[in-house]
Amino acid sequence: MAAGSKDFTITIEEDPHYIQHDTSPPAKKGWLPDDALERASNFITDWTPFGLVASYYVFSTSLYIFCSDGLIAIFWFIYMTTNFYIAGATVLEAFMSITPCREARKIVTQAEEKGWNFPTPDDQLLILDLLIVAYLPNEKDIIMDRALYALEQIDYPRDKIRINILYNTPKPIEPLETELRQLTERFSHARVIKVPGSTSKADNLNYFFTLDTGSDLIAIYDCDHYPHPNGPRWAVERFMADTEIDIVQGRCIVFNSQDTFLTSMIAVEFDKIYAVSHPGRATMWGFGLFCGSNGYWRTSLLRELKMDGDMLTEDIDSALRAVSRGSKTVHDLNVTSYELAPTTFPAFWKQRLRWAQGWAQASARHLKMVYNKPQEPLHSDHGRSFTTRFGILSLLLIREMSYYLVTQYTCLVLSFVIVKFPTSGSALWKLVYFQYPVSQWLFIISIICLFATLWITNRVKSEFVSRRMIIQFSILYPAYLVLAATIGLYGHARQIVRYSSWNPTARK
């Protein structure tokens, strides 16, 4: 195919819509998987991070028990001050998100008044490859449902879009794989690709990037997502309106919030992240981020950057590499997609540990953006401003350091409880929050910032989040911060021992 061709033909033998290769793993050499030495090695690798984190908590708490009152006062002031900074930055991002939210609502109102006639005529729209990426043993129960939904419900001209089912599996799964192949017979805009030798999402994507499909844009979705029928159209309209946009990141909404208490809290968290923090950060610091799913890329950029299979969160790594090139990423709240949250704590724990370690990897690799110059910038007039550099510092360094600040504060409070055990609830309250006079103001201001952030979140909450859920989230927020910080420490510990197992999130 000639470069820049706008048809969907790819040079593949026989059926152009279905690609299948032998994915049988090579024969293993040396020690067998069930060998005692290998089992012992895996056990040590798995449990060493736990030992490191547990030792960290025990050592820190013990240290504070034996510290003098003067040193305790210094530590207390440092932790309360940094907590104030984090809370202040969070509420500033929240306030900055108000404008993007208003603009998104205004655009929807205008489209509704015009009978949902979008600005760009159908025949002038960009050609879109929409990828649904799946790991079949883990997502075999949902892939057909999501594929049919995308093929039938997405409102985009069929001659301008290709729905690509991109999957890998270590062993054949029938009759599911046959049913997937048959989709290409029922839908002219379907393509099913079984990726050869793939063991990860990165492998699946990188394989697809080698195919010349003639698309202008590529959208990436995890298999558990339901893209809003108009989501792709909203995203493409953003590209049509501004030719300098390189990436459009949409809003991800948890739709199974009623399943468990855990999913309800994750649903609130996602509303806070995708509707408040991300658009607020992009406005405040001058850069946005691709978040792994419900993201739209210019095809040329994504094929150039690809995905780094050595990174646990290859999506964040690619997003930061795009930032390093001076890409323009916008967060569009009208580009919505609905996804599943983990329903059990073990599944949540595995998912967040992978994210934490992946963020640690990506942060260490890309922190140099704080001081270096953009390499081969995409836009000649897009330098890296001081504001953007400080935003990157806040995202990659201060955020990672905050895990230690939160947990150190926790250990400090725990040492107080051990040494000066309170005899009443009021004594505990005073001990935890008002040990020193200056902390009263820092604490009160931090609480105001928290409530302001959650008030703004309540204003933009999704249809699956209730006010009761937000209130519960607010009450549990201190415990959530400690849990998130502990997971962050665990991710660092895993990175120290070079833990590299990829644990996909269970989907049912």
TrEMBL record:
Q: Where in the cell is it found?
A: Membrane
Keyword terms of this UniProt record: Glycosyltransferase, Membrane, Transferase, Transmembrane, Transmembrane helix
* Annotated TM spans: 403-421, 441-458, 470-493
Query: Keyword Transferase: yes or no?
Result: yes
For this chain, one GO molecular function annotation is:
glycosyltransferase activity
Residue ranges annotated for the Glycosyltransferase 2-like domain, each copy included? 218-455
Its main subcellular localisation, reduced to a broad class, is membrane
Q: Which GO terms describe its cellular component?
A: membrane
* Keyword Transmembrane applies: yes
Q: How does it sit in the membrane?
A: Multi-pass membrane protein
Domain of life here?
Answer: Eukaryota
Coiled-coil region: none
- Pfam families named among the record's database cross-references: Glyco_trans_2_3 (PF13632)
A single Gene Ontology biological process assigned to it is:
proteolysis
**PROSITE patterns, from UniProt?**
ASP_PROTEASE
Q: What is this protein called?
A: Glycosyltransferase family 2 protein
